[in-house]
Design goal:
single chain; about 300 residues; alpha/beta; Rossmann fold; 2 domains; six-stranded mixed beta sheet; four-stranded parallel beta sheet; 12 helices; about 40% helix; binds pyridoxal-5'-phosphate
């Protein structure tokens, strides 16, 4: 039986490195808000942030079933495929990545890493890619086609939830609200499921028109209501991977106060949104917030 602790140590996952740091910013002092950041980006140099959290128990499931081939899907800059390819490389498992859209003339750095770590890449049309999104179980259609263990886009499966929930065991301070960026909503669902008492989790959608998001989160949680979570859709900056000068100048300003690297796809948008809500007095004075840095810094490369 594979031992997940041994696998974590073989991969070099370091939960102690993923510290909680106070955030410095004049807006926080002015509005009397306490903000810390859980540096999950420091969990591992490559399998950073929510990537490992979401993959952990899917991987264990695959290994328990003696699968040697992991298949998944993502965009050409996918943090999820990047982490998966590295895990496959380290654990000597075969990996296949189904990539959205046409093959670019020249590999970007993410694709080049995927190939270097031995991931087989197959570029699929946007239409076919959309179709693939409906396969959510490890043994669904692509698993049969490619003869392996299927992991949905972004690692969005029920099996991802307990791994994400483990973040809470590493938070040894009191707080009122946790915030994080949402793509598929799986990370938010894992946190919401594990969150004790009256505490709340607030997600910021990185996608425009993410109307599916609340529905998907409810599905993952097997619930109809939203007792301890909500998603804000106001800070997508035009859509996934879209950015504006305003967002970049916010990130630069944030980084002038804090030595914390950000990327504009997820964490930059989440913090921009959070600071905007703080400036608009949407949190009571004295409110304690912990923002989860979900990593993804590899996507900053060309
Ligand atoms: C850096 C980063 N943050 C946040 C997310 C969103 O996570 P989720 O898809 O679980 O909502 C992703 C996607 O996995 C990501 O790569």
């Amino acid at each position: 039986m594979p031992d997940i602790k041994e696998i974590e140590s073989e991969l070099g996952i370091d939960t102690k490195a993923a510290i909680i740091e106070p955030v410095q910013h004049p807006d926080l002092a002015e509005h009397k808000i306490h903000l810390h950041i859980k540096r999950d980006d420091l969990l591992h140099p490559i399998i950073s942030g929510n990537k490992w959290r979401k993959l952990k128990y899917s991987l264990l499931h695959a290994l328990n079933k003696e699968h040697q081939h992991l298949i998944s899907m993502g965009g050409a800059y996918s943090n999820h495929l990047h982490a998966l390819a590295y895990v496959g490389h380290k654990l000597k498992l075969k990996t296949t990545g189904l990539i959205r859209g046409e093959q670019p003339k020249k590999d970007n750095q993410t694709l080049s890493d995927l190939r270097q770590w031995g991931m087989e890449l197959e570029f699929v049309s946007r239409g076919a890619f959309r179709e693939l999104r409906k396969y959510r179980n490890y043994d669904s259609e692509p698993a049969k086609k490619y003869d392996g263990f299927w992991i949905p886009e972004g690692g969005a499966s029920h099996e991802a939830l307990p791994g994400v929930g483990e973040i809470l065991k590493e938070i040894d301070m009191d707080f009122d609200t946790l915030t994080l960026a949402c793509g598929t909503g799986t990370t938010l669902a894992g946190i919401a499921k594990a969150l004790p008492g009256t505490k709340k989790v607030l997600g910021f959608s990185a996608l425009k028109g993410g109307g599916f998001l609340e529905k998907d989160i409810k599905k993952l949680l097997h619930t109809k209501g939203m007792p301890n979570w909500s998603v804000n859709f106001d800070y997508h900056f035009g859509g996934f991977a879209k950015s504006t000068d305003e967002l970049i100048s916010f990130m630069n300003e944030f980084q002038s106060h804090n030595n914390i690297p950000l990327e504009p796809l997820y964490n930059g948008k989440m913090l921009f949104g959070l600071f905007d809500l703080i400036k608009n007095n949407r949190f009571k004075k004295g409110h304690n917030i912990i923002a989860i840095h979900t990593g993804g810094l590899q996507g900053n490369r060309e």
